Amino acid sequence: MRLRSAIAALALLAACDPGPRAPAPAVAAAPEACANVVQAPSLPDGMVQDLGTLSVGDTARFTIGDQVTSFVIVSQQEGVTAPATVVSGATAVPNAVVPTDLRAPSGALYYDDFAAWPTTTLGGAISYADTTGLLGFDAGFQPAVGVFPFPGTSGGLARLRAGGAVERGTWTFTVNDWANRCPLPSCADGRSAGRYRVTVVQRPGGIPAAGTLDLEVYLATGPQSALPGAAAAAASAQAARWRQSLAAYLGNAGIALGEVTFHDLPAEVKARLAANGRVDVGDAGPCSPLARLFTSAVVPRRAVHLFLADVLVAPAVGGAPFHVIGVDGSIPGPSGFPGTIYGGAIVGLEDFGFEVTRGACAPAAPLSIASCGTDRTAYVAAHEIGHWLGLFHTTEADGTFFDPLTDTDPCPCHACAATPTAQAACSDVNPRGTTLVTNARCLAGPACGGGHNLMFWLLSDHDSTGELTPEQGQIMRLNPAVR
Amino acid sequence: MTLLAALLALAAAAGDPASGAPPPELRRQVDALLGSIHGPVAPEVLRALGPGVEEALADAARAEAMPSRRIRALEALASLGGPRAEATHRAVAASAAPSAVRRGAIRGLGRLTGTAGAPRALAPFLERDPDPAVRAAAAEALAESAPAACPRIRARAQAEGDGDRFQRALSTCAAAEGGPGAVPGR
């Protein structure tokens, strides 16, 4: 959710001013970065290049060999060498760790953190940010640990397909965080001494038509939970159904669910960060309870590290705490680096085992997110895994910002709203707009799509089928977590 | 179509003002927005849907539906406030709904009844509910809404002998009273 709210805020800002550089999401002032432990990779040696400890402003070089189909730059802050936030105007924004630029051996510029996003016109004369053609894209906005993937966009996939592999040779990029050089207006930068342990993970082999994903599942649950511990989970018929449902959704991406291993968390971690199965997911910062919880995902496996908790709660500003169904630490997740502060996704178990109609979760009952809570929980887990593997929401809540893929249908608010009144309250035409796009509205017209997609921002009993497009499947299968 | 039939169809489409039933499209919108995966939608978004939103949310909160949807509906209703919200929370809290849903209703009830009303509304759940998780939720809601009830919460925690379950409530009490947040029984 941290990233999702960030993107939602980003979308709102982008709608106000799509021309210049991508604006950053506003966040409440976060505490300064707490001590961050640099994690070693748990990947085969041939996939990893350790570039050592580099400072902001340094030029990093790495080598891409033959038949590499994707790479990820993972930058982990050493100690507390940079602030967690930077002030832009009157707003504190995350001190994003992202390369200033990325150049291929041919000299081609694959990413420029200071470039304005291109725009496109949808549904008439309304202009929206269009990141599909970019070769590189970063919307992480996360301090302390940066994860930059290639490819992550249709432009990147097209370049990869054209060459059959990532351009081989020496690539370069400039190590940066926004407290050092900030692309936002009125940014108080020039104040970082950030030092980062930089690692490049490359995935060899051709563009995969299929893959297998292992799952390490950590139980942040209480003693009264449906899944109170690893032994109970391994023997649970509902956990078996959950795995089966999850496998069905991942199958839509050509990914087979491999080994699923349940783990108990240390009692001390549970007591401190998941008392009685309740996890606070409200704070996005590197010192937040959720980030600290994720550091307990230490099983050294090339996998997605998923937490299950009985309840996820986020405190609201000026209001009561609210429930969250699922959260992913970062997009993409730091695959192969278990134990980092963003190295987890977490899903709540409130619906797990619940049957709207008697027998809906029985072993032979068909998959149904409408009537079987276990299937619903699996759907949310698949959605969060989609984020981990590099997918964004196809369309963000207010219908003004879309993922960087061309084969996912966008759902622009103004074109897809139900009524003239709702249209007039769309954020793409009204800065104070309140209309949000729904699954049904995103299936209601030729210019509207994405309502069936696993990565839509809402889960609908009637419309969410968990579909994934070919490009979404490619992005997921190219992630280093998928073998 | 006769004029009468047309008028009836129009009335059905617009909802029935006499019964306060929300229009079908509004109900569909509310139902859809309760499916948000990462967090709830803002109260102003719900308010902007127009009259009938509270009724649609109350229906969703009372429906035999997925717990997460019912909790979302209760939270949304609590954020809008009003007598319908309070009545719905009371009804769901006292119902045979799943524990997670009842706990959601208890939390909202604390918020809706406030400092003056929370002790009366929540004490029965704190002291007599058969579900220990609901008793703990009542303690938390009470500690947040009415710190004056903290002695009662401490007494309950002592009687339960389960410091872990009451940890949050006791910490809230300690913070409200300027104490160190010590938790007995740990």
Strand content of chain A: 15-25%
Q: Mean pLDDT across all residues of chain B, rounded?
A: 85
Q: Characterize the biggest β-sheet of chain A.
A: 5 strands, mixed
Number of domains of chain A: 2
Q: List unreliable stretches of 5+ residues of chain A.
A: 1-33
Q: For the CA atoms, what is the radius of gyration of chain A?
A: 21 Å
Q: What multimeric state do the chains show?
A: heterodimer
Secondary-structure class of chain B? mainly alpha
State the total count of DSSP E strands of chain A: 20
Layout of secondary structure:
The complex is a heterodimer of chains A (483) and B (186).
Chain A: H1 2-16, E1 48-55, E2 59-64, E3 68-77, E4 85-88, E5 91-94, E6 101-103, E7 109-112, E8 119-122, E9 126-129, E10 145-150, H2 154-163, E11 169-174, E12 195-204, E13 211-220, H3 230-235, H4 237-251, E14 255-264, H5 267-273, E15 278-280, H6 289-294, E16 304-309, E17 311-314, E18 322-324, E19 326-328, E20 345-348, H7 373-388, H8 413-416, H9 420-424, H10 470-477
Parallel strand pairs in A: 13-14, 13-16, 15-17, 16-20
Antiparallel strand pairs in A: 1-12, 2-11, 3-10, 3-12, 4-5, 6-7, 6-11, 8-9, 17-18, 19-20
Chain B: H1 3-14, H2 24-33, H3 43-47, H4 53-62, H5 67-80, H6 83-93, H7 99-128, H8 132-145, H9 150-160, H10 167-176
